[in-house]
């Protein structure tokens, strides 16, 4: 599939913010590859759920749909405990973790746990700069930042896709 100057060989879809069995059912019916559970709350959002809720929902997933712990926490122990309890195959980090914190999480994590980091389109660039983290990441998620509403994802606002293309080319 080609979009402008970018060729995409495989697109994977992760739906995030699942809070209930009904949400989960809709995500599974949609054909998503992964389900994001927002745990480890550090700011106000109606999409965060408890680790216990995330674990219950993750156990309901059919095979081949990956549970993703989506968190703003930086503490290695807390992140790894959440991932283990939920049975996550992927952890998606938000915010601006210290490189040393991410290195510690990676070092202590099981080899099967994959790491993604969210970056947010701000103007003609992304925040945070993902470059220092790249050697420790398995993927990058690009999302839209809505400073006015205080939302760092799931804003419903489309960002300038040329920023995403530029980022992809740099990786």
Structure characteristics:
single chain; 171 residues; alpha/beta; 29% helix
Major sheet, described briefly?
7 strands, mixed
Distance between the termini: 19 Å
Radius of gyration: 16 Å
Number of strands: 9
The percent of residues in helical segments reads 25-40%
Count the DSSP helices.
5
In N-to-C order, the SSE pattern is: EEEHEHEHEHEEEH
Poorly predicted tracts of residues: none
Strand content: 15-25%
Summarize model confidence as the mean pLDDT.
87
Topology, element by element:
Blueprint: E1 2-3, E2 6-7, E3 14-16, H1 21-30, E4 34-38, H2 51-59, E5 66-71, H3 76-86, E6 90-93, H4 99-108, E7 114-122, E8 125-127, E9 139-144, H5 161-170
Parallel strand pairs: 3-4, 4-5, 5-6, 6-7, 7-9
Antiparallel strand pairs: 1-2, 7-8
Write a structural description:
The protein is α/β, with parallel strands linked by helices and about 170 residues long. It contains 5 helices and 9 strands, in the order E-E-E-H-E-H-E-H-E-H-E-E-E-H. Strands 3, 4, 5, 6, 7, 8 and 9 form a 7-stranded mixed beta sheet that branches. A two-stranded antiparallel sheet has the order 1-2. Helix 3 (about 75-85) packs across helix 4. It is globular and about 40 Å long.
Task: Provide a quick synopsis of the model.
The protein has 171 residues and is an alpha/beta fold. It is 29% helix and 23% strand.
């Amino acid at each position: 599939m080609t979009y402008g100057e970018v060729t995409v060989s495989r697109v994977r879809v992760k739906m995030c913010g699942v809070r209930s069995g009904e949400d989960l059912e809709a995500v599974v019916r949609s054909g998503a590859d992964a389900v994001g559970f927002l745990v480890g709350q550090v700011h106000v959002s109606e999409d965060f759920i408890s680790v216990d809720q995330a674990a219950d929902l993750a156990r309901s997933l059919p095979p081949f749909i990956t549970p993703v712990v989506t968190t703003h926490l930086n503490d290695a122990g807390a992140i790894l405990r959440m991932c283990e309890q939920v049975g996550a195959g992927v952890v998606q980090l938000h915010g601006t973790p210290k490189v040393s914190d991410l290195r510690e999480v990676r070092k202590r994590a099981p080899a099967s746990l994959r790491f993604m980091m969210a970056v947010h389109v701000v103007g003609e660039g992304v925040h945070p700069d993902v470059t220092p983290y790249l050697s420790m990441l398995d993927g990058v998620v690009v999302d839209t930042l809505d400073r006015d509403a205080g939302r760092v994802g799931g804003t419903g606002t489309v960002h300038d896709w040329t920023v995403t293309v530029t980022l992809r080319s740099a990786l």
